[in-house]
Amino acid sequence: MSTQINDHIHLEVAGENALMLYFVDESRSSSIIKADKVTDDISSNVQHAAKLIRQHLSADIIDLIPSYASILVMFNLLETDHHHLRNKLKKLLRQCGGTKNKQGRLIELPVYYSLTSGMDLERIAKHAKLTVEQVIALHQNHEYRVYAIGFAPGFAYLGEVEQRIATPRLATPRLKVPKGAVAIADRQTAVYPAQSPGGWNIIGLCPTDMFNAQAMPTMPVEVGDRVRFVGIDKQEYLDLGGVLSNLVNDSED
Amino acid sequence: MKSHNKSTGATSNANETALGLLVTNAGVLSLIQDAGRYGAFNLGLTNGGPADPLAFYWANKLCGNALNTTSIEISLGGLELLAQVNCVIAVTGAAMPLTINGHKKLLWRSYLIKAGDKINLGYTSQGVRCYLAVAGGFDIKPSFGSTATVCRESVGGINGDKIVTDDLLPCQAIDKSRSQLKLLMLAEHGQPKYSNEVVLRTILSYQHQSFSAIGKRLFFSCQYHVSKHWDRMGYRLQGRAIKPALDGILSEGICYGAVQLPADGQPIILLNDRQTIGGYPKIGAVISQDCAKLSQLRQGDSVRFEPISMSQADNLFHLNISRLKQTQLISCN
């Protein structure tokens, strides 16, 4: 059931109308890679392949879900079958891979870092044996890449945070994480697009809408973009449309 | 529940002059659905759409509608409507008692409704979901290319929410002078049967190699029960724990019907409103026909998994399509 397309890509079955492309770099034979080992080169290959598929196989495809090191390809069973699509993908992607990390757009997202807007800052600092200011500086002084969008509308998985401030998810997720919460889980970071339950560690608030159904474009970032967080103060946060009323206190909920 | 202000919001369908079916009781969970939202995965939006696409198909077919026509999915029952216009409706799916002006009516056939008529759906004892279609469809403004409601995402339907009492579901009035209205029914032998036990034919896929041979044998030979967590996002099962050798994987795309096995070894089958990506190991994916049957089960009902190949799944899909094409509706006129 597995098809090797080239040294970088192999193809597996996912479901009745879905195939899965897995991406590895030359040194790796296994497709299962932990989040802290994704390289920007793999991510670039994923983006390149997704673009090729959208360009050339749109008649057969319902939609794609590119992620860290994979692409789920959902196809139209009334137009094609897995044998044909497998061959088409094989032909199309044979030359794909080995692309070097391409520089995506650089997007700046403002963040109001503070002990009130980032209720987990102190705990992260303690965990990392750093000061709160150092945690904020380490989070800011780094360029992230958008590896995937999913889980919820507008939720962009950004990587990778500096190892020293990588913090595991909360043992019990909060029932309410406020909209705009900037948070860390292991070596990933993200902005919550809307109020939702969540177990990531909150370090600040971002006033930028990560998902607005009425806006064009709907999201400020897309997969492959680079993101930099820029610290702002409370007044700037409010001026940019941020709200403080939804803040949860760090209680047992 | 979030507020339901019809005067604001660009997705509002409120129109002072629109007429249609007025919701006098929304029931347990009634949702606006078309065939689903496709092409918006890049924004993290899931598919939505009818949990039982077969019953949805017949509801629209009985009303002479195209397959992607906006209808209502009613879970468990309790929906009550007051017609403001003459129209044709059909209800299909789980055995919900249907009455029009208090008179008992059949599912799987279309009826002429007159302005002022009351349409009531009782509660189902077998199966979970019904579909109510109207000729010409409900006139709901699509968001991201679809009217399908996904409450978790606040997208689709009326203001991204489930149907609530006093909602107006706009639809076209049928011309009274048209005496040639075609009312149709589906013969009883063509109607799907709903039971408390379903076999889920499953393609081994994704991380199935990280499960032991014994683990897979147990998975396909044990009976599982639907736990108290069953909804349009996914069905959590209870039974023999099947533990993967991996505790997690790099987050990846999740297809319809994917069977996740988290650390506790209890399967979760992901359906229409699933999260688009996730990091739990998956043993395979249930075929779409059987996902539809699963969505008609509730807590305590039982399922078994049966392994099939990708090619068998392909055959079953096309057999089903040709069977649907060959099934003729019967005229009631």
UniProtKB/TrEMBL annotation, chain A:
Keyword terms of this UniProt record: ATP-binding, Hydrolase, Nucleotide-binding
- Where would I find the Carboxyltransferase domain in this sequence? 9-221
Q: Which Pfam families match?
A: CT_C_D
Q: Can you say what this protein is called?
A: Carboxyltransferase domain-containing protein
* Any one Gene Ontology molecular-function term assigned to this protein's record: ATP binding
Question: For this UniProt entry, which segments traverse the membrane?
Answer: none
Q: Which PANTHER family match?
A: 5-OXOPROLINASE SUBUNIT B
Q: Which SUPFAM superfamilies match?
A: Cyclophilin-like, PH0987 N-terminal domain-like
The record's section on InterPro entries has: CT_C_D, Cyclophilin-like_dom_sf, PxpB
Keyword Hydrolase set for record = yes
Automatic annotation (TrEMBL), chain B:
State its Enzyme Commission number(s).
6.3.4.6
Identify the keywords attached in UniProt to this record, alphabetized. Answer: ATP-binding, Hydrolase, Ligase, Lyase, Nucleotide-binding
Q: InterPro entries, per this entry?
A: CT_A_B, Cyclophilin-like_dom_sf, PxpC
Q: Where is the Carboxyltransferase domain positioned along the sequence?
A: 42-324
Q: Does the keyword Hydrolase apply?
A: yes
GO MF terms on file? ATP binding; hydrolase activity; lyase activity; urea carboxylase activity
The family database entries (SMART domains) matched by this protein are listed as: AHS2 (SM00797)
Q: What class of enzyme is it?
A: ligase
Superkingdom of origin organism = Bacteria
Signal sequence span is none
Entries under PANTHER family matching the protein: 5-OXOPROLINASE SUBUNIT C, CARBOXYLTRANSFERASE DOMAIN-CONTAINING PROTEIN
Q: What is this protein called?
A: Urea amidolyase related protein
Q: Which organism is it from?
A: Colwellia psychrerythraea
